[in-house]
């Protein structure tokens, strides 16, 4: 599949069709952890015909609400709306929602958006190249005014492994392949992607890790992926390849990684560097030793920001679909949790 066709697959909401063709519906906006103002403004601008109710103060009669657009709402909140038709997660990962034991039995729609996908692809490429081109070493040399060139393997000799071959992982895999890396991918079910060596399931994990020098993790948080980035797995990464070292980039979810194991892997040399965008506790507590580790790069869960400019339109188009009698797209499969 070419990058173009990945974008096509993701482009279900970018048909050029406007939004706001459906009759008035009451929509709840409930956002925690992000500033809701930009979302509210965007929804009001794009769909003035809808009745937007903003949690916590502007809910009104709960029986009116047909759609809930949410990010990390308090557990149990959505159970209080008896006439919900669908829940929209405003982020790509809906693990917080899935953890709500009282989540109403209506479709849960997640974000699939080419803007968000490209942001994540940028993040993966940026950090893979940072390790490949030894940028942290050159930064250190610059601080000391050292003019010293190091040997540089070709990208085509470096093996990058992408854990999670969904919307985000597939896009990153194709872009890294296009730059020239030898890319492989790991998923739950089998995949065929041109130019990418694929592995899947329990038996695919070990060979996948053993051929990966730079591991990029873009898995969702589910019971099956919890703690998957532990010391035992990090030790299996390839350290005798072109880079002579192994690196980790995790932009999936914090629950995938065991912080103490990452520190231990850095200490013993199983890992030569780690880029972490997500953490088991966010924001990362100031006392966490990862902050100051010289081989760790930290970003504040911003690998792929969900921005209202593009995403509110996707949500409103899906509401139009449902109001028009069609099933929503990109719904979470509750049995597998993503
Ligand atoms: P998708 O649902 O499209 O893809 C998930 C991929 O993970 C699929 O390939 C799936 O395999 C694979 N997978 C799931 N469980 C397992 C498992 N147990 N073993 C092996 N593979 C598994 O998700 P997206 O690509 O859209 O997003 C991935 C994650 O990225 C989100 O869930 C979210 O946590 C994170 N994210 C982080 C952001 C950030 O800013 N840091 C922003 C946006 C998302 P299969 O296809 O076979 O089912
Ligand atoms: C996420 C997001 O899922 O920000 O992390 O979309």
Task: Explain what the structure shows.
With 338 residues, this protein is of the alpha/beta class. It is 30% helix and 16% strand. The protein contains ten helices and twelve strands. The chain has helices at residues 3-10, 37-46, 95-98, 114-132, 135-143, 167-179, 201-210, 231-234, 259-268, 308-323, and strands spanning 26-31, 51-54, 65-71, 86-89, 108-109, 159-163, 182-187, 197-200, 214-217, 247-250, 273-276, 296-298. The strands form two sheets. Strands 8-7-6-9-10-11-12 form a seven-stranded parallel β-sheet, sandwiched between helices. Strands 2-1-3-4-5 form a five-stranded parallel β-sheet, covered by helices on one side. Helix 9 links the parallel strand 10 and strand 11. It is elongated. The protein starts with a helix and ends in a 15-residue tail after the last helix. 41% of the residues are buried. The model is unreliable at 1-18 (pLDDT under 50). The site of oxalic acid has 5 residues, from loops.
């Amino acid at each position: 599949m070419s990058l173009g066709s990945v974008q096509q697959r993701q482009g279900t909401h970018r048909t050029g069709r406007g939004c706001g063709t459906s009759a008035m519906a009451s929509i709840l906006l409930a956002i925690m952890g992000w500033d809701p103002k930009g979302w509210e403004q965007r929804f009001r601008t794009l769909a003035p015909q809808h009745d937007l109710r903003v949690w916590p103060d502007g809910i009104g009669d709960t029986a009116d609400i047909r759609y809930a657009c949410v990010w990390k709402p308090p557990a149990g909140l959505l159970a209080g709306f008896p006439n919900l038709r669908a829940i929209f997660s405003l982020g790509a990962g809906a693990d917080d929602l899935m953890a709500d034991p009282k989540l109403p039995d209506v479709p849960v729609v997640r974000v699939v958006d080419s803007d968000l996908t490209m942001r994540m692809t940028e993040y993966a490429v940026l950090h893979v190249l940072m390790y490949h081109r030894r940028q942290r070493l050159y930064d250190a040399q610059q601080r000391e005014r050292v003019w010293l060139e190091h040997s540089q393997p070709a990208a085509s000799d470096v093996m990058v492994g992408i854990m999670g071959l969904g919307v985000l992982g597939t896009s990153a895999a194709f872009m890294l392949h296009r730059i020239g890396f030898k890319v492989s991918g790991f998923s739950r079910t089998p995949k065929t992607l041109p130019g990418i060596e694929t592995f899947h399931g329990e038996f695919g994990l070990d060979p996948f890790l053993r051929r990966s020098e730079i591991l990029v993790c873009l898995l969702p948080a589910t019971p099956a992926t919890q703690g998957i980035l532990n010391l035992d797995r990090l030790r299996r990464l390839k350290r005798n390849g072109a880079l002579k070292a192994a690196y980790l980039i995790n932009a999936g979810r914090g629950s995938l990684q065991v912080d103490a194991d990452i520190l231990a892997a850095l200490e013993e040399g199983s890992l030569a560097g780690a880029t972490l965008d997500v953490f088991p506790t966010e924001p990362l507590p100031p006392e966490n030793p990862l902050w100051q580790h010289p081989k760790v790069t930290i970003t504040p869960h911003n690998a792929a920001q969900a921005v209202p400019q593009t995403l509110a339109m996707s949500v409103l188009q899906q509401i139009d679909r449902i109001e028009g009698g069609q099933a929503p797209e990109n719904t979470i499969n509750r049995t597998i949790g993503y």
